[in-house]
Specification:
Blueprint (H helix, E strand, L loop, with lengths): L1 E7 L2 E6 L9 E10 L2 H7 L20 E2 L3 E9 L11 E4 L2 E2 L5 H4 L10 E2 L11 E5 L3 E3 L6 H4 L2 H14 L6 E5 L3 H12 L4 E6 L5 H7 L3 E4 L5 H9 L4 E6 L4 H9 L1 E9 L11 H7 L2 E4 L6 H10 L5 H4 E6 L3 H11 L6 E5 L5
Parallel strand pairs: 11-12, 11-14, 12-13, 14-15, 15-16, 17-18
Antiparallel strand pairs: 1-2, 1-4, 3-5, 3-9, 3-18, 5-6, 6-10, 7-8
Helix pairs in contact: 4-5, 4-10
Pfam family, one: ADH_N
Keywords: Metal-binding, Oxidoreductase, Zinc
InterPro entries: ADH-like_C, ADH-like_N, ADH_Zn_CS, ER, GroES-like_sf, NAD(P)-bd_dom_sf, Zn_alcohol_dh
């Protein structure tokens, strides 16, 4: 089968590898679609998390490894002991690989497992014609949701989880710095949770229409507008109650921090390739609170229910569709050339929907 394999810095090769065996407790999936995540892009110019020198302690795998953790597909084989699933079921999947034995796993916070691994990083992932998944990662795709649409369930769940961690945002003024897929996921989740005003800050206006479609009430192009001044005009207050940082660079962190009013909450979602400087005095002086969020627990189920109700225009969030064979030039390299042009590049692996 064909698979996109990561070997190192900007070295991803589409090559032939064997179809994976199906261990007990796993299923084999014929992958239909797989999304290129910001994490995948970080690994392409990294590595960041992919084990390069010794195998991962849970999976036993290391580079070369098949990338990809945002996926949809159809079950084609069941491993021993799998129940509740059958061949032909349409699925998407969590990326969390966890031990189930540490305190965090036992408390239900499997996304924080002490031995956490992730599909496409610690174990072969979805940029392949077939992959194997543990049954505990599976989520059923509703009949009214296409497999192309379902590939967005995983990134949308990240915003849903982050918003849950923040607590009650009903009636709050919210700002989101960065209108990529994670930023838009946070906009949608905050809107669904009852946020009053949602201002999105972007570098350019490429994604303004999409931001408004998923719930933004205002959009600021930081190239020619001052986000802090615009925020004060919008809220009539010195800042926002809740701010999401969804880029992962120093300038976006600075902007997000400056948008906070006293006693506000900052949710950092961006992955930083370079260690940022952080003005802790902003937080100490106004009893502001810093939150972070990692992946999700069971929020994919919530997102799939939302998709079933067709309350989010998921198909419009896919800004390019490419074949697996073009994943480097039209995928990873395209994201480096035109980072603000795309929300989600979806890779069609197999036409199975």
């Amino acid at each position: 089968m064909k698979a996109a394999r990561y070997y190192g810095f900007k070295d991803v090769r589409v090559e032939e590898i064997p179809v994976p065996e199906v261990p007990a407790g796993f299923v084999r999936v014929r992958v239909a679609w797989a999304g290129i995540c910001g994490t995948d892009r970080h690994e392409y110019t990294g590595p960041v998390w992919i084990p390069m020198e010794k195998p991962h302690r849970i999976t036993g795998q290391m580079a070369p490894i098949t990338l990809g953790h945002e996926l949809s597909g159809v079950i084609v084989a069941l491993g021993e002991g799998v129940s509740g699933w059958q061949v032909g079921d349409r699925i998407t999947a969590s990326g969390n690989i966890y031990c189930g034995e540490c305190d965090l796993c036992k408390s239900g916070r499997v996304n924080l497992c002490e031995n956490l691994a992730f599909n496409g990083i610690g174990r072969d992932g979805a940029f392949a014609e077939y992959m194997v998944l543990p049954a505990y990662q599976l989520f059923r795709v509703p009949d009214s949701v296409s497999l192309e649409q379902a590939v967005l369930a995983e990134p949308l769940a990240c915003g849903w989880h982050a918003t849950r961690l923040l607590g009650d945002v009903k009636g709050k003024n919210v700002a989101v710095v960065g209108p990529g897929i994670i930023g838009l996921a946070c906009v949608f989740a905050a809107k669904q949770a009852g946020a009053e005003q949602i201002m999105v800050v972007g570098l350019g206006r490429d994604n303004e229409e999409l931001a408004r479609l998923v719930g933004a009430t205002h959009y600021v192009d930081s190239r020619d507008m001052n986000p802090v001044e615009e925020g004060r005009k919008l809220t009539g207050k010195p800042g926002f109650d809740v701010v999401y940082e969804c880029v992962g660079v120093q300038s976006s962190l600075n902007t997000a921090s400056e948008l906070l009013r006293k006693s506000a909450k900052l949710m950092v979602m961006g992955v930083f390739e370079k260690m940022p400087q952080f003005n802790m005095n902003i937080f100490q002086e106004g009893e502001r609170v810093l939150y972070t969020s990692q992946a999700y627990t069971d929020e994919l189920r919530d997102i799939l229910e939302v998709m079933e109700k067709q309350t989010i225009p998921v198909e419009k969030l896919i800004t390019a569709r490419i074949p697996l064979e073009r994943i480097v030039e039209d995928g990873f390299e395209e994201l480096l050339r035109n980072p603000s042009k795309h929300v989600k590049i979806a890779v069609q692996i197999k036409a199975v929907d």
